[in-house]
Amino acid sequence: MRLLRSCSSLVFAVFVVATATLSNACFAQNAPAASYTPQVGQEGKDVIWVPTPQALVDRMLQIAGVTAKDYVVDLGSGDGRTVITAAKKLGARALGIEYNPDMVELSKRNAAKEGVSGRASFMKADIFETDFGDATVITMYLLPQLNLKLRPKIAGMKPGTRVVSHAFSMDDWQPDQIESVEGRTAYLWIVPAKVEGAWRWEISSSGPRSYELMLRQHFQMVEGLVKADNKTGQVRNIKLRGDQITFSVMEFAGVETVIRRDFAGRVSGNSIEGTMKSPNGTGEVKWTATRGAQ
Ligand SMILES: C[S@@+](CC[C@H](N)C(=O)[O-])C[C@H]1O[C@@H](n2cnc3c(N)ncnc32)[C@H](O)[C@@H]1O
User: Fold this and answer.
1) Is the CB of 189 inside a 6 Å radius of any atom of ligand 1?
2) Is the CA virtual torsion 32, 115, 70, 40 positive or negative?
3) Is the minimum distance from the CB of 70 to ligand 1 under 6 angstroms?
4) Local confidence pLDDT in tens for the 294 residues of the chain
5) Cβ(45) to ligand 1 under 6 A?
6) Residue of the nearest CA to atom 26 in ligand 1?
7) Which of 96, 129, 223, 272, by CA, is between 20 and 30 Å from 52?
8) Could you tell me the distance, in angstroms and rounded to a whole number, from the CA of residue 131 to the centre of ligand 1?
9) What is the 78 CA–ligand 1 centroid distance (Å)?
10) At what angle do helices 81-90 and 101-113 cross, to 10 degrees?
11) Whose CA is nearest to atom 24 of ligand 1?
C-alpha cells in the first residue's frame, strides 16, 4: 500500500515537472528572448536591417519640424530608435511599423527602458498593407524602388505632411530640403496641396477686378498663366508648401510700366483664401479663389 502511494506521488511529481517544462518551452518559442540581439544586415521582408545613426535620426526629426503635436510613423522601424527619439526628445506620439516580430518586441523593450511606452508604440505589420494616413510626419530608410511604390500613397496624404527619407529619394518628386550628417543624406518632402486647374476670383480694390489663373502642377512644382480683367499678365515665383501658396501677378500697364501684386493664400479643396498685397505696399486686400470643374 505504501509502495502504491509512493508510486502515485512519483507519477504526480513527474507530471508536474513535465508540464512545467513543456509550458516553459512553449513560452520560449512564442516570446522572443529578452536577450535578442539583431545583426546589422539581417534579412528583412523587403529590405535588410541597417540602423540610421542617432545623429541623423535627430537631424531628420529636426528638419521635419517634429513637435509634441505630431504623430510620427516610421516605415520599417527596425530597433525603434526613430520612434523612441520622436517620443522622448520631442514629446511626439509615434508608431513604428516593422515586419520582423523580434524587432517589434525589442523596440517595445527599448521604449519601456526609455520610459516612453505611452507615446511610442510598435506594430508587427507590412508597410504596404497598413494604413498610416493619420501620420503628420513619415520617416523611412528603405530603398529607392520601395519609396517609389509608397509614393502615390504618400503624395495623397494631407497637404503639409512631412516625409523624411534616409539615403533614398523619390525619383522626380524633388525634395524640398536635403541635409547631410556625417556623410549620410536625408531628404525632406512636404506633401503639396492639389492646385492644378482653373481658378477665378474678384477683388474690390484699385487695379484689376477679376482674375483667372490656370495652374499646372508636378508635385510642389507649379506653373501658371494669368488673366487680369481679361488681359494676359504673367504669374511668377509660384511657391507651394503644403497648403500654402504664394505667387506674384505682373500687370503690364505700359511699355515701361509693370505693376506687381503679391498673393498669398491657403488651399482648401476647391478654394484658396488669402491676402493680396497692393503695389507699393499700400495695403492688403482679402481674396478668395474658386476652382472650376476640371
Ligand atoms: C534599413 S532598416 C531601417 C530601420 C529604421 N527605420 C532605422 O532607420 O534605423 C529597414 C527595416 O524595414 C523592415 N522591413 C522590411 N520590409 C518591411 C515591410 N514590408 N514592412 C515592414 N517592415 C519592413 C526591416 O525588417 C528593417 O528593420
Assistant:
1) no
2) negative
3) no
4) 443 344 344 333 333 333 333 333 333 344 555 789 999 999 999 999 999 999 999 999 999 999 999 999 999 999 999 999 999 999 999 999 999 999 999 999 999 999 999 999 999 999 999 999 999 999 999 999 999 999 999 999 999 999 999 999 999 999 999 999 999 999 999 999 999 999 999 998 778 889 999 999 999 999 999 999 999 999 999 999 999 999 999 998 877 888 999 999 999 999 999 999 988 777 899 999 999 975
5) yes
6) 49
7) 129
8) 16
9) 5
10) 20
11) 44
Separation of CA 44 and ligand 1 centre (Å): 7
* 82 CB within 6 A, ligand 1: yes
Instruction: Quote the cell numbers at residue 129.
Output: 498593407
| Bridge-based pairing state of the strands 244-252 and 271-277 | unpaired
Tally of CA atoms within 13 A in the half-sphere of 190 that contains its CB: 19
Measured in Å, residue 99 CA sits from the centre of ligand 1 at 7
CA angle in degrees (0–180, nearest 5) for 142-147-152: 150
Other CB atoms within 10 A of residue 138 CB? 22
Q: Are 246 and 229 in contact (CB under 8 A)?
A: no
Contact 191, 173 (CB under 8 A): no
Cell triple for 11:
507519477
Report the residue count for the chain: 294
DSSP string, 67-133: -TT-EEEEES-TTSHHHHHHHHHH--EEEEEES-HHHHHHHHHHHHHTT-TTTEEEEE--GGGS--T
**CA–centroid distance, residue 138 to ligand 1 (Å):** 13
Q: What pTM was computed for the model?
A: 0.88
